[in-house]
Amino acid sequence: MSTKKIKTGNRTAICAGSFDPPTLGHFNIIERGLKIFDKLIVAVAINTSKNSLLSVKERVQLLTNLLKTKKNVEVVSFDGLLVDYACKRGVSALLRGIRNMSDYEYESQMAMVNKVLHPKLETVFMMTEGKYSHLSSTFIREILTFGGSCKGMIDPMVEEKLKRCFQTASKK
User: Is 50 an annotated catalytic residue?
Assistant: First the structure.
């Protein structure tokens, strides 16, 4: 158990994930999270065990461009344990989106482990609105791999970036 202190009364939360690619479901959680928290840190996880489509730098740049009108959103990348990053930033809450029961089972286990590591760190679960509950980055990548359209699932800027990635990959 860490002995690092977390500030209490801080209305900043971290919304972390791989965002590979960011979906409209991610943006739904961010938008609604801003109604609860004064500031959100959208943190792109550097996960060396995943084979990512977009680099961390590309994901941070996409999210930064798409969220640039939100003055109370900061987009960053982080490496290591999320609880350690939260302590480093003095943040006492994590915002996690839930689409279904499978997400809840995974996220609740992670929240309990995080609570053991940092007892003052709270996890706030937010259900994704129904119209986004079917979205996953995995499905988006698969649809685009086969030339399908992701209209209504991802921002057009994200779709264009991904199509360029797939075109570059197919030329190799």
Answer: yes
